[in-house]
Amino acid sequence: MTMNAPMRRMRSSEIVMDGAPKDSDRTVFVGNLSQDVDEVILYELFTQVGPVERITLPLHDDPGSDRVSHKGYAFVQFADGKVNSARHSVVYAMKVMNDIYLYGQRIRVSRSNSRAGTQDESLLEPPLLPGDAAMVEI
């Protein structure tokens, strides 16, 4: 089988802290992003729930366009913190950040790996800190 069209390499824009390798167990998928959202905004938003070590924002591969645009989704990877593990941050991010509005669009936050739901997430749930209860009630 031969392919007539040239293969395209997926381009992405990334923020990576300390050369962190990709790890899907520590990563959330963030969908329905406005074109106004960039890596810096995602970094600032998601550091509210845990230490972020990688943000990947896939870009459209359109050589005919002068404007660079992303595909409307991103991946946010958490690091182990002093208080909670990265896996706690993943669960917390799904609870706190899912369905919030960012630039007028309701974002979707879910696990990025295919093993979602295979482990009892109540065991990974981080303890609530003072002031967190109001955030969970979004």
Automatic annotation (TrEMBL):
SUPFAM superfamilies: RNA-binding domain, RBD
Protein name: RRM domain-containing protein
Record key words, sorted: Nucleus, RNA-binding
Higher taxonomy: Eukaryota, Cryptophyceae, Pyrenomonadales, Geminigeraceae, Guillardia
GO cellular component, as recorded: nucleoplasm
Pfam families, per the entry: RRM_1
RRM domain residues: 26-114
GO molecular function annotation: RNA binding
UniProt keyword Oxidoreductase, yes or no: no
Signal peptide extent: none
Protein source organism: Guillardia theta (strain CCMP2712)
Keyword field contains ATP-binding: no
PROSITE patterns: RRM
Location(s) in or outside the cell: Nucleus, Nucleoplasm
Bilayer-spanning residue ranges: none
